[in-house]
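In this supplementary section we document a worked example of the pipeline. Step one takes a protein sequence of length 268 as its only input; no multiple sequence alignment statistics are reported here. Step two produces a three-dimensional model, which step three serialises into structure tokens for compact storage. The input and output of this example are shown verbatim.
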Amino acid sequence: MTDERVRFNICDSVADVRLVRRDKSNALDGAMFDALIDAGRQLAHTHGLRAVVLSGEGSGFCAGIDMSVLADMADGAIAGVADLVTRTHGICNRFQYAAWVWRELPVPVIAAVHGYALGGGLEVALGADIRYMTADAKLSVMEVRWGLVPDMGATQLMRHLVREDLARELSYTGRVFTGADAFAYGLATRLADDPRQAALETAREIADKSPTAIRALKRLFNDAVTIDPRVGLINETIEQQALIGSRNQIETVLADREKRKARFEDAT
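The serialised model returned by step three reads:
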């Protein structure tokens, strides 16, 4: 038994973030929401960070809301919060930000899902840029089973990944589907027997690229789902103009020409 919820270490510019509440299947309680937010905020200010892998220890990624939290909802509050509408974390409330913080990180985040990602657990995974899963993983937009709606960003994140009717069906029924289904639907990027290992390999591959270009790409992709195409095309040229002739862009070309590992300056 432990009060710890999230742990991370950084090696070669890649953060390995683990949900570590094994005794509760990494379920989301107030402390877990706060731990996810704290980890994301720390990483957002970590100099030299280039990629993040997010996974769960034990039998699954995250089992969703802790049942004790559901049991305490009769007083009109959830995990000690009664006012969900007031924005406390930018465009989000506390619960939404536990998933959205990974979208806001300036570097790519890869979620590695095994076992299960149910309800809020799936929403945390949806906050990542990329999702690797085992074929037999169990997933669900489960909130309707408790008479609730998904409230950690799923309605905003799913609509850019799957057809609208499919997002509605999964949400209206709360049915459990597999990682293989998720790949077919567009919710999983890749299937892997060991998604964490596959995610770490991809994260290291990303970390070998120009960090200024990667951060520019994340800004562009984050904006692309919400802005007018005319603005998005201008943003592309603004990012490109800043990259052309920059230290890391020149180093990318030289390293390729000289058949050596690039020596990049850290981006901020």
